[in-house]
C-alpha cells in the first residue's frame, strides 16, 4: 500500500526547477505499478520521496500506512529500493554485498533465502567475484537480491531495465512477476513504453506531472482518435508525404509502420478516411502501400498526451 | 554497386584468453542506416571501438572511410562522427560554444563554423536558445543537437551508440527524422539501440551473439527467415541462446 497526495518537489535556490508537480496516486497491495516517462520526468524524485531519501516541499505520502516524513525509520525497514544508478559496493564480492545488506537490516541471508533463491542461483557461480567486475545483467540481479534480503513488503525499482538488452529485460520482468505472486507490492519506473503492458496499472509522467493513470488496457482504450498503420516500400518518403496529408491529425514512425491519426473534423467514417489516405499515397507514387486500422498502444497514447 | 564505406574481414579482438569479437566480417554501404544489435556483452562496444580507431584489433582486417584501422586511425577519427547517450555535448557551454568547439576540433575554418552554425540553428529552430547553456535544454533537444554536432563536420560515417536512450517517444522520433535526413544526404549511419522498433528503421541489421555475427540482413528478411512478426522476436530467437553475459 502506497499513497501519494499532491506531492511537490522543487530544486534550485529559488525553487525554479519543479521536478514533481502535485503528484497523487495510490498503489494497492501486491500490485505492479509503473511510472512510465522519459528522463527528467520526475520519476526518481518521486521514488526518493517515497523511500524517505528526500523531503517533499509539500504534499504527503504514506507507505504501508507510515508517513514518509514522520515515520521514516519504519519505512526504511519496510521497503526495498533499487536505485537507477548501480549503488552496491564495487570492491566487495557478490556474497559480501549480500551479507552486508542482510546485516544492516539485522537479518541473515539464510533467513530470507527463499525470497531470492530464484535470482541468486544465477549469481552463485560468481559469488566470489567483486561486484564491480560483474556484467550489467548480473549487477542488476545482485542489486535486486540486496534490495530483497530484508524481506520488504514494498519494492521500489528505479529504471531497472534501462540500457538492458531485450532478452535480459524479459527475464527481469519474469522475476518481478514471481515476486508479485509472493505478495510484494512493486513500484517500477521505466522509459520503455513496451514495458507498460507488463504492469497492472501505470502512470504516464512528463515534466513532473502525471498525464494519465489507469490500467494499460484502459489507457489504450481511451485513445480518442482513429488510428491506422501504414507501410510502403519507401518508408522515408512515406513519412514525408504523410506529414503533408492534411486530413491526418498526426503521423509518426512506429517500428516497421507509420501511424496515422485521423483529423478532428473528419467524420467517424473509417472506411472513407482509409480510402482518401490510399488515394493520396497512390497519387504520391508510393509503392506496395498497406493500410490497416489498428488499436492504439500505450506509446501512441503517450505521444498524443505530449502534444 | 554502392560504395563500401566500412569493410571488415575476420576482425577479432581478444583480451587475454577472452575473445570479445570473433572473426567479424561485414560491409556497410554509403548512405546506409546500419543497425548494430546484440545483448549486453555481445561485443558491440568492442567492435565499435575498433571501427572508430580507439582500439587496435588483435587480428583481421578493417577499413573505415577508406582508411586502415591499424595504420590510419587518426584519419578515421577525422572522417567520422560519434555520439552516445552518455557523452555528447559540454553542458556548461552554450549551444554556440559547443558548435565552435567541435567545429574547431574537426578543423573547420571560422567562416565554415559560422555559416554551418547559422544554418543548423535555423533548421533546428533554436534561434532563441543559441546562447543558452546546453544543460538548460530538455533531453530531447540535447540529443537532437548532439546528433547535429556529430555530423557538423560532414563526416562520411556517423557512429551512434544508443542515441535515444531515455528520450521521450516524440523526441525519439525527431532524432530519427534527423538520422533519415543525414542518410539521405549520403552520410552512413552505424547505430546501436535497445529499442527494437528502432531496429525497423534501419536498412540492414547486424545481430551479434557472443562476439560473432549471428544474423545480418534487412529487418523484413530477418522476420521472414525466423517466421516471426517483430524484430523483438528475431532478437529473442537469436540472443536467448547467448552463453556469455559481458
What features would you highlight for this structure?
heterodimer; A: 307 residues; Rossmann fold; Alpha-Beta Plaits; 2 domains; four-stranded antiparallel sheet; 10 helices; B: 246 residues; alpha/beta; six-stranded mixed sheet; 10 strands; 36% helix; 26% strand
Structural description of this entry:
The complex is a heterodimer of chains A (307) and B (246). With 307 residues, chain A is an alpha/beta fold. Chain A has 2 domains: 2-220, P-loop containing nucleotide triphosphate hydrolases (Rossmann fold, 3-Layer(aba) Sandwich); 224-306, 2-Layer Sandwich (Alpha-Beta Plaits). Helix content of chain A is 34%, strand content 27%. Chain A is built from 10 helices and 14 strands. In chain A, strands 6-7-8-3-9-10 form a 6-stranded mixed β-sheet, with helices on both faces. In chain A, a hairpin with a 5-residue loop joins β1 (2-11) and β2. In chain A, α3 packs parallel to α5 and α4 packs antiparallel against α5. The longest helix of chain A has 16 residues, at 166-181. The radius of gyration of chain A is 23 Å and the shape is elongated. The model of chain A has no long low-confidence stretch (mean pLDDT 92). Chain B is of the alpha/beta class and 246 residues long. Chain B has one domain (4-239): P-loop containing nucleotide triphosphate hydrolases (Rossmann fold), CATH 3.40.50.300. Chain B contains 9 helices and 10 strands. Chain B has helices at residues 44-51, 73-79, 95-105, 110-124, 139-150, 169-184, 196-199, 219-225, 231-239; strands spanning 4-15, 18-29, 33-38, 59-64, 67-68, 80-84, 157-161, 188-192, 204-209, 212-217. A 6-stranded mixed β-sheet of chain B has the order 6-7-8-3-9-10. A 4-stranded antiparallel β-sheet of chain B has the order 2-1-4-5, covered by helices on one side. In chain B, β9 (204-209) and β10 form a beta hairpin. The radius of gyration of chain B is 18 Å and the shape is globular. Chain B starts with a strand and ends in a 7-residue tail after the last helix. The chains are: A alpha/beta (307), B alpha/beta (246). The interface between A and B is large, with 36 and 41 residues.
Amino acid at each position: 500500500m502506497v499513497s501519494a497526495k499532491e506531492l511537490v518537489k522543487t530544486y534550485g535556490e529559488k525553487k525554479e526547477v519543479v521536478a514533481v508537480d502535485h503528484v497523487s496516486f495510490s498503489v494497492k497491495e501486491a500490485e505492479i505499478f509503473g511510472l512510465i516517462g522519459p528522463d527528467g520526468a520526475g520519476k526518481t524524485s518521486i521514488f526518493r520521496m517515497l523511500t524517505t531519501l528526500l523531503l517533499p516541499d509539500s504534499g504527503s505520502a504514506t507507505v504501508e500506512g507510515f508517513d514518509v516524513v514522520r515515520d521514516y525509520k519504519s519505512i526504511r525497514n519496510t521497503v526495498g529500493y533499487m536505485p537507477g544508478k548501480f549503488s552496491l559496493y564495487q570492491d566487495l564480492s557478490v556474497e559480501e554485498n549480500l551479507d552486508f545488506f542482510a546485516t544492516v537490516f539485522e537479518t541473515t541471508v539464510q533467513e530470507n533465502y527463499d525470497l531470492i533463491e530464484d535470482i541468486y542461483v544465477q549469481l552463485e557461480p560468481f559469488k566470489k567475484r567483486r561486484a564491480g567486475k560483474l556484467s550489467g545483467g548480473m549487477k542488476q540481479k545482485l542489486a535486486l537480491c540486496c534490495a530483497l534480503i530484508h524481506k520488504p513488503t514494498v519494492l521500489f525499482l528505479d529504471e531497472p531495465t534501462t540500457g538492458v538488452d531485450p532478452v535480459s529485460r524479459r527475464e527481469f520482468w519474469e522475476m518481478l512477476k514471481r515476486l508479485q505472486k509472493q505478495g510484494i507490492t512493486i513500484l517500477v519506473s521505466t522509459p520503455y513504453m513496451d514495458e507498460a503492458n507488463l504492469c497492472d496499472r501505470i502512470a504516464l509522467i512528463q515534466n513532473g506531472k502525471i498525464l494519465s493513470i489507469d490500467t494499460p488496457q484502459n489507457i489504450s482504450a481511451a485513445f480518442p482518435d482513429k488510428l491506422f498503420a501504414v507501410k510502403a516500400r519507401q518508408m522515408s518518403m512515406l513519412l514525408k508525404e504523410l506529414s503533408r496529408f492534411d486530413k491526418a491529425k498526426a503521423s509518426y514512425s512506429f517500428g516497421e509502420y507509420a501511424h496515422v491519426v485521423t483529423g478532428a473534423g473528419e467524420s467517424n467514417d473509417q472506411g472513407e478516411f482509409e480510402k482518401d489516405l490510399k488515394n493520396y499515397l497512390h497519387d504520391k507514387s508510393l509503392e506496395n502501400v498497406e493500410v490497416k486500422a489498428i488499436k492504439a498502444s500505450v506509446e501512441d497514447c503517450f505521444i498524443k498526451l505530449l502534444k | 554497386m554502392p560504395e563500401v564505406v566500412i569493410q571488415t574481414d575476420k576482425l577479432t579482438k581478444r583480451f587475454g584468453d577472452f575473445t570479445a569479437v570473433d572473426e567479424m566480417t561485414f560491409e556497410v554501404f554509403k548512405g546506409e542506416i546500419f543497425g548494430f544489435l546484440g545483448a549486453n556483452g555481445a561485443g558491440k562496444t568492442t567492435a565499435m571501438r575498433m571501427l572508430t580507431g580507439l582500439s587496435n584489433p588483435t587480428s583481421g582486417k578493417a577499413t573505415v572511410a577508406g582508411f586502415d584501422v591499424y595504420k590510419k586511425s587518426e584519419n578515421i577519427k577525422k572522417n567520422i562522427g560519434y555520439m552516445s547517450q552518455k557523452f555528447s555535448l559540454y553542458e556548461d557551454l552554450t549551444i554556440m560554444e559547443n558548435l565552435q568547439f567541435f567545429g574547431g576540433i574537426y578543423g573547420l575554418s571560422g567562416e565554415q563554423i559560422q555559416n554551418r552554425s547559422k544554418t543548423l540553428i535555423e533548421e533546428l529552430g533554436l534561434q532563441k536558445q543559441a546562447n543558452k547553456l546546453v544543460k538548460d535544454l530538455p533531453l530531447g533537444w540535447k540529443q537532437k543537437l548532439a546528433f547535429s554536432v556529430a555530423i557538423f563536420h560532414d563526416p562520411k560515417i556517423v557512429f551512434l551508440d544508443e542515441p535515444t536512450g531515455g528520450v521521450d517517444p516524440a523526441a525519439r522520433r525527431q532524432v530519427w527524422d534527423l538520422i533519415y535526413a543525414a542518410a539521405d544526404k549520403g552520410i552512413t549511419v552505424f547505430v546501436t539501440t535497445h529499442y527494437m522498433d528502432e531496429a525497423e528503421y534501419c536498412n540492414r541489421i547486424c545481430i551479434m551473439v557472443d562476439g560473432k555475427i549471428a544474423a545480418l540482413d534487412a529487418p523484413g528478411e530477418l522476420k521472414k527467415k525466423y517466421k516471426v512478426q517483430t524484430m523483438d522476436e528475431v532478437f529473442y530467437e537469436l540472443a536467448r541462446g547467448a552463453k556469455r553475459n559481458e
